[in-house]
Amino acid sequence: MRLKDKVVIVTGGGQGLGEAFAKGCAREGAKVVIVDVNEETGKKVEQEIGENAVFIRTDVSQRPQVQAMVDEAMKRFGRIDVLINNAGVHAGGKFWEETDEIWRRMFEVNVMGVVYCSQAVVPIMMKQGKGKIINVSSKAAIVGEPYHAAYSASKGAVLSLTRAMAAELAQYGIRVNALCPGTTLTPLGQSALADPELRRALESGIPLGRLGQPEDHVGSVLFLASDESDWMTGQMIVVDGGLSMI
Ligand SMILES: NC(=O)c1ccc[n+]([C@@H]2O[C@H](COP(=O)([O-])OP(=O)(O)OC[C@H]3O[C@@H](n4cnc5c(N)ncnc54)[C@H](O)[C@@H]3O)[C@@H](O)[C@H]2O)c1
């Protein structure tokens, strides 16, 4: 029960990594706010977790919706201990063919979503004197990978943002760290693997010999969310089967 009575917001909690994080946090005693644009999957995860979960439909790239979600979470639970900025979108393609629309979408959701959610919870965490923000970046932010430049750049921005926020918010007791997952078998991961050239590039040379599963990342997130990581901020944990070390 490492998160007993803590209130955790998980964005993109309706499926994939976010679903695994929401369920993992609930197993450790947290009250969980599941945030997603997809009402059907968000509600399903809410029901599966039970009374300690609430689903609030929100598009994280829309600031007013994010503020309304945080207000609602406060009304329901009265505090916010952990924000897991996990919602994200992916688009593959050749660099010279990536449209303005793709670049805009990657930054609106993957970067501004993190900004809006974090800006909405920071004043609450400041008042509490403590809080944890976990930003889900990607190993695509730290190694050069072909065929998803806009996505990689947005995830690089998430890492820079993590360090800048950590430096500024440490004085208020707010810790900000990042998780960098390697390719993981979720609907988003599958879309990255749809392009055979990219699949070969991603799969070849994973030292631990396989792609990731959502559960492979839950332990790192629980560590970053719990008091066990209290003397840690501005850091990243890379969970990628060893790919980025070589
Ligand atoms: N799966 C991978 O291989 C992988 C690797 C590295 C990083 N990541 C990152 O992990 C995070 C989760 O990815 P996943 O693989 O579980 O993806 P996924 O597509 O399976 O799930 C993402 C969830 O986010 C939700 N979402 C998308 N846009 C949203 C928005 N604007 N507002 C609110 N919710 C929104 C979707 O509805 C979905 O439920 C993403 O940030 C992704 O970039 C994934």
Which spans of ≥5 residues are poorly predicted at pLDDT below 50?
A: none
Mean pLDDT: 96
Relevant CATH superfamily: NAD(P)-binding Rossmann-like Domain
Say which molecules are bound, naming each kind only once. nicotinamide-adenine-dinucleotide
Strand order of the largest sheet: 3-2-1-4-5-6-7
Helix content: 40-55%
- CATH topology type: Rossmann fold
Beta strand count: 7
CATH class: Alpha Beta
Which class of secondary structure composition applies to the elements?
Answer: alpha/beta
Give the overall silhouette: globular
What is the name of the CATH architecture? 3-Layer(aba) Sandwich
How many strands, which pairing sense, and closed or not: the largest β-sheet? 7 strands, parallel
* Count of discrete domains: 1
Measured distance between first and last alpha carbons: 36 Å
**What is the CA-based Rg, rounded?**
17 Å
Q: How much strand content do the residues show?
A: 15-25%
Separate helix tally: 8
The SSE string, one letter per element, is EHEHEHEHEHEHHHE
